[in-house]
Amino acid sequence: MKIRPLSSITETKNAFHKTDLNNEFSRVINVHTLGVEPQILKFSAMPNEKERLRDRLGILALNRFEIKCQVSHDFLHSRVHIDAMLCAELVQACVLTLAEVKETLSEPVSLKLVTKCAAEDTSGRFFDDGPEEIELNADGTIDMGEIFAQYLSLSMNPYPRAGQSTSN
Questions:
Q1: 3-class SS shares of the chain: helix, strand, coil, % to 5
Q2: Ramachandran angles phi, psi of 122, nearest 5°
Q3: Are strands 16-17 and 132-135 parallel, antiparallel or unpaired?
Q4: Which of 31, 33, 60, 88 has the greatest CB tally within 10 Å of its CB?
């Protein structure tokens, strides 16, 4: 299993692309370039991306936003499995006093990226307690940055209170 930072991915295999300028944090992955071996990918938000995410999320500061994920391609079932750890340090305003409330997040995220055909095949499935299924674009790409930005918003304390700094 190889550990590759974003810079080497971009320079060597083009597995990650930073393309969508409309997203605050865009990391597009092309599953066709992943290969057979499971890979570990790491990426983090640049200062300007953290500012844009801060504005999008309505928080006071986003000091750290990093993702480390293991990506495994299941060619037999046309799926990509992603097991990730989302880490963030942020500051929100207290819902009562508007004082600063610091929060540290360390959230595991499991995803299953599927083709449109696999996503439409729901025969025999009544309840799936496994990883969330996300449909790939027709060209085999998906914006992982946007997905993890959404997970960040879901992981934050919705009602931060002063005097209750949190760590998840």
A1: 25, 40, 35
A2: -110, 15
A3: unpaired
A4: 88
Please state the length of the chain. Answer: 168
pLDDT digits (tens, 9 = 90+) for 38-64: 999 999 999 999 999 999 999 999 999
Q: Please tell me the pTM assigned to this model.
A: 0.77
As a whole number of angstroms, the distance between CA 120 and CA 70 comes to: 25
Tokens of 41: 């990918």
Instruction: State how far the Cα of 127 lies from the Cα of 55, in Å rounded to an integer.
Output: 36
**Residues with Cβ < 8 Å from 162, sequence gap 6 or more?**
94, 96, 97, 99, 100, 101
* Rounded Cα–Cα distance for residues 109 and 70 (Å): 11
Max Cα–Cα distance, the chain, nearest Å: 54
Q: How far apart are CA 126 and CA 124, in angstroms?
A: 6
> Residue with structure tokens 């597009």?
28
Q: Where are the domains of the chain?
A: 2-167
